[in-house]
Design brief:
InterPro entries: GATase_2_dom, GFAT, GFAT_N, GlmS/AgaS_SIS, GlmS/FrlB_SIS, Ntn_hydrolases_N, SIS_dom, SIS_dom_sf. Catalyzes the first step in hexosamine metabolism, converting fructose-6P into glucosamine-6P using glutamine as a nitrogen source. It catalyses: D-fructose 6-phosphate + L-glutamine = D-glucosamine 6-phosphate + L-glutamate. This protein is an alpha/beta fold. It has two domains: about 230 residues, 4-Layer Sandwich (Glutamine Phosphoribosylpyrophosphate, subunit 1, domain 1), CATH 3.60.20.10; about 350 residues, Rossmann fold (3-Layer(aba) Sandwich). The chain is built from 18 helices and 27 strands. The strands form five sheets. The chain has an eight-stranded antiparallel beta sheet, covered by helices on one side. The protein has a seven-stranded antiparallel beta sheet with strand order 5-6-7-8-12-13-14. A five-stranded parallel beta sheet has the order 19-18-20-21-22, sandwiched between helices. The longest helix has 22 residues. It is globular and about 75 Å long. Bound molecules: 2-deoxy-2-amino glucitol-6-phosphate (AGP). The site of 2-deoxy-2-amino glucitol-6-phosphate has 14 residues, from α9. 2-deoxy-2-amino glucitol-6-phosphate binds next to α9.
């Protein structure tokens, strides 16, 4: 994780780097730091915590420079502290910012210490800066020193490097961690994500794995992993600098919850002709691939994994497509048996999740011939590594808690079920039903958002609680899991989800008045069974909040608070029933006074194992 931003320009880069860091805080916010090279010296400022602390430090004691590097950290090696904050400096000459993990740092550290380098931090990054300083003793340029250093590194990195003896040169390189070059007029910048650079440019070069770039004010040279000089295309971004503003909302998360009707419409847009989903919505050769596959294997993490769990029900129930799903970090080390004619489907908001990427590469290594990614980040690593792509068009999601990415993933998955299912047992009638329900979604989402005030009131029931249970059945069990994840990640209340039928096998022992039980109870074939499960909880004094179809909704009583949901078709109800759970966790977090958009210990983009 961590966010990097750096630049070389004819103007002072410090304000640009600070703004860039703020836009990268979703990648980590344990500490922030910035260094410039100016008048033959490195000037560095570092602060524990968020970028605003660093900003205050620099406002109180300004630094300026035309070349600089900056970093916002999500701690891996070494606790969050000022001395572990980047940039790291070697012998007052070289400074480095790093995103990723260096796996052989112990070995390198020992060798560097033997050669007289003194370490001042517990980070894996510090070996990189000392190694570059060491390689500069024999290399004829900063570029060649960095090339020599990265040849010794094992693991993942994106780097920005400056050196006092080359004040006109910024070196950038990446392997396994993302890095983009922003092309300005007479200036270049680098960042972990284009969002950091949108205030200064909309023209970007996406470095490929193994690339090393030498940036000067008037030149840019890129070498690939085989040390060949290469040209990489400049891509014009459509995103605007203010597309990541909070607008009228108090938090990004709330804004993103409210954007879901729009995001779903965008995701559906242009993918149908005469109400018929086009195979090529997944890529020009998608039809050929779909014709060949015999089963589906879904790989994802966190919230994206939950969307995959819903899809497994859909694939098997609606279309009789054999479908397996596994958490990516387990799949990658399990040595699974997988047939070459399986379609591996990865799901990821960021497209950079290290475990998901590694699981995809592992599936390919095991001989899988076809891959498809459902992703919200164009040009991300997973998009580049996959044969077929379905972009969710949710727009940038800044809140660490994933909301609109999840609902648009479900929309994309329903489209995939149509495309693949047609080749299996999906009937034309079911296909038409799915399509018409998909297009009804934005309106239904708007209706659910009207429950916001009622849900805010309910959230008070959680203010003094330390635990919560979430129950669901069928496709709504993963929705209960997603609700529990949302609550724990932003309100720090311990929450678990269970398939409601499983309660009596153990968790029922936890039920008392201190344990709120949130239940998603749409009108489907499992409702009667779910009602019995609700009774089991209520009879033991449990406090239930039940989201239920308005046409069936019973009245609330002492133990059971019913929230009436718009009546929707089964096929889309997992998407619709997600929204109140997002709102609930949001309001609980606000009540508890947590940092809603940047909850403790987490980061938005998990680019480490
Ligand atoms: C969601 O609220 C989480 N912050 C997290 O579980 C996330 O979904 C997970 O890290 C996977 O990320 P991805 O979708 O970018 O791959």
């Amino acid at each position: 994780m961590c966010g990097i931003v750096a630049g070389i320009a004819q103007r002072n880069v410090v304000p640009i780097l600070l703004e860039g860091l703020k836009r990268l805080e979703y990648r980590g916010y344990d500490s922030a730091g910035l260094a410039v090279v100016s008048q033959g010296e490195i000037f560095r400022k570092r602060e524990l915590g968020k970028v605003k602390g660093l900003e205050a430090l620099i406002a109180a004691d300004p630094i300026e420079g035309n070349i600089g590097i900056a970093h916002t950290r999500w701690a891996t090696h070494g606790k969050p502290s000022t001395r572990n904050a980047h940039p790291h400096v070697s012998r007052d000459k070289v400074a480095v910012v790093h995103n990723g993990i260096i796996e052989n740092h112990d070995h390198l550290r020992t060798a560097l210490q033997q050669n007289g380098f003194e370490f001042t931090s517990e980070t894996d990054t510090e070996v990189i800066v000392h190694k570059i300083a060491e390689d500069l003793q024999t290399a004829d340029s900063l570029l060649n020193a960095v090339k020599a250093t990265v040849a010794t590194l094992q693991g993942a990195y994106a780097l920005g490097v400056v050196f006092i003896d080359c004040p006109d040169t910024l070196i950038a390189c990446r392997k396994g961690s993302p890095l983009v070059i922003g092309v300005g007029i007479g200036e270049y910048f680098i960042a972990s994500d284009i969002a950091a650079l949108l205030p200064v440019t909309q023209r970007f070069i996406f470095l490929e794995d193994g690339d090393i770039a030498e940036l000067k004010i008037d030149s840019l040279v890129i070498y690939d992993e085989n040390d060949h000089r290469v040209e990489r295309p400049i891509v014009e971004s459509q995103l605007k600098a203010d597309s990541v503003d909070k607008g009228k909302y108090r938090h990004y998360m709330l804004k993103e919850i409210y954007e879901q009707a729009w995001a779903v419409s965008e995701t559906l847009e242009g993918r149908f002709i005469d109400n018929r989903l086009q195979d090529n919505a997944f890529g020009h050769n998608a039809a050929e691939v779909f014709d060949q596959i015999k089963s589906v294997q879904i790989l994802a993490c966190g919230t994206s994994y939950h969307s995959g769990l819903v899809a497994r029900y859909w694939f098997e129930k609606l279309a009789r497509v054999p479908c397996s799903i596994e958490v990516a970090s387990e799949f990658r080390y399990r040595n699974p048996v997988i047939s070459p004619d399986t379609l591996v489907v990865t799901i990821s908001q960021s497209g950079e999740t290290a475990d998901t990427l590694a699981a995809l590469l592992e599936a390919k290594r095991l001989g899988v011939k076809h891959s498809l990614v459902i992703c919200n980040a164009p040009e991300s690593s997973l998009v580049r590594e996959s044969d077929l792509v379905m972009m969710t068009r949710a727009g940038p999601e800044i809140g660490v808690a994933s909301t609109k990415a999840f609902t648009t993933q479900l929309v994309a998955l329903l489209m995939l079920i149509i495309a693949v299912g047609r080749r299996f047992a999906l009937t034309k009638e079911t296909e038409e039903k799915i399509v018409s329900e998909l297009f009804s979604l934005p309106g239904n989402i708007e209706k659910v958002l009207k429950l916001d005030n009622a849900i805010e009131l309910l959230s008070q029931r959680f203010a003094d609680k330390h635990n919560a249970l979430f129950l669901g059945r069928g496709t709504h069990y993963p929705i209960a899991m997603e609700g529990a994840l949302k609550l724990k990640e932003i309100s720090y209340i311990h929450a678990e989800a269970y398939p409601a039928g499983e309660l009596k096998h153990g968790p029922l022992a936890l039920i008392d008045a201190e344990m709120p039980v949130v239940t998603v109870a749409p009108n489907n074939n499992l409702l009667e069974k779910l009602k019995s499960n609700i009774q089991e909880v209520s009879a033991r004094g449990g406090q239930l909040i039940v989201f239920m179809d308005e046409e069936l909704a019973e009245s609330s009583d002492e133990n059971v608070q019913i929230v009436k949901m718009p009546s929707v078709a089964n096929i889309i109800s997992p998407i619709v029933y997600t929204i109140p759970l997002q709102l609930l966790s949001y309001h609980v977090a606000v009540l508890k006074g947590t940092d809603v958009d940047q909850p403790r210990n987490l980061a938005k983009s998990v680019t480490v194992e």
